[in-house]
Structures are given as structure tokens and as C-alpha cells.
Amino acid sequence: MTSLRTVVQDCLGKGETGESISVREDVLGVYGDDNPRARSVVERLDRIQTQPFVRIALVTVRPTSSPAEQNANLQRDLDTANAIYQSECGVWVYPVGSRVVSTDFLGETVQLDQDDCFGSGHSVSDDEDALFDLGRDMGAEIVGYYINSDVAGFRGCAAHPKHRLGFWVGSSATQWTFTHELTHLVGRNKHRTNDTNNLMFTNTGAIQNLPPDLTDNQCERIQDDKRTESC
Fold first, then answer.
1. pLDDT by residue (tens digit) across 77-108?
2. Which long-range contacts link 166-171 to residues 24+ away (Cβ below 8 Å)?
3. Residue 71: which of 19, 134, 127, 145 has the closest Cα?
4. Full set of structural domains in the chain with CATH
5. Distance (Å, rounded) from C-alpha 135 to C-alpha 200?
């Protein structure tokens, strides 16, 4: 039987230089305490070896005056992303790590200066340029950022500087916003303005018949994305 360390090392690249492996984080993908549930190491090891996955790094931004605490919804969002991707597309989401960055470049309220959220032709602000530099050394091409808000009032946004893939979610995000923004990047899936059952409906707060759906075409785009890898 293949050992746990061998599976994690060969398939995920963790422990290659002899560092310790955390069953909680590196195998089960648990970085928060906000979504307690029964989790099986055996099932997870099987998934690692047999199902395609997408790597993501997670960064929570806090002002220096507040406790350096991870976002309270982080584990909920990870579990939601995995539930949707697995049930709809046979893909899972692998968090390579979670980091809290204490900084004041977004001010005391951690509000991003962002005027638009266009998929193309996006004007990158100085705030965005600084934000999307964070977490680039964590081992994933895609970085998800937890901030408080932006000046335009979005729940989240997947517009990003060139060659720095990522998205952010704010305090007004719904349970589906994190996965919605991730899916803009993985497969370059666009909004669906007339399908209120779909994850990519424009307003995640108005999605109906929960949990949200993904179409066969959307799943094919996720499966075929160059950032979707297999053991």
C-alpha cells in the first residue's frame, strides 16, 4: 500500500525536501475551524490520486491594528468550492496554504481602491497591484484574497493584474461568491445573466435552487483548464 507521505509528496509536491506533512492541512485541506464536519483521510487520499484538482493559495489581509486572524469564512468557502466542483465536474480544490498578512496599504477598513471589475480592459489600481503581489510564493498560480470591501461595492472580483491570477472576496460575499470568482479564472467561465440556478449567475445573492449548478460546458472548461492538474 502506498504511504500517505508518498501520495502527498508525489501528487501534491508537499514534503519533497523532507519537511513534515500535516494530515489536517496537507491531506484533508483544513485550514479553518468555521465549518466542522466529518472528514475521511482514506477518501481524501483516494481523491488526491484519482481526481483532477486545482491549486489555490489563500491570503487574509488585516490592518496592523487588528488581530492577525484568518477570515472566519475560509473553511466554509473551501468546502463549498469542493462540494460544487466534485458533484458537478469531478474536480476538487486543493488549498496549498493559508496566510494572514498584516498591512496598512488598504487602510484601517481594508477597502480596496478598485473602480471596475471587467474581465478584459481592466484598469489596475495601485492597491490592486500591491494586493496581487501577496502570496505569490505559496505554491499556487491562483491566489484568493480575503479583504473587507472595495470602493465600487462588489461582493468579490476576479479581475487581476496581468500574469498574476487571483480574485478577492469581501465581507458582503455570500457562501457562493468565492467559488463563483474562482470559476471566472478556472476555465474562464463568464457570467450567465438568465440562469438563476447557475453558479455564474451575476448576483450570487440571488441564486435559486441551491446549491448552484454548473453546466456540462462550464465543467469541460474547468477540466480542460491548464491549471487543472492530476496526480
1. 999 999 999 999 999 999 999 999 999 999 99
2. 166/132, 166/135, 166/142, 167/142, 168/112, 168/131, 168/144, 169/77, 169/144, 169/145
3. 145
4. 54-229 (3.40.390.10)
5. 26
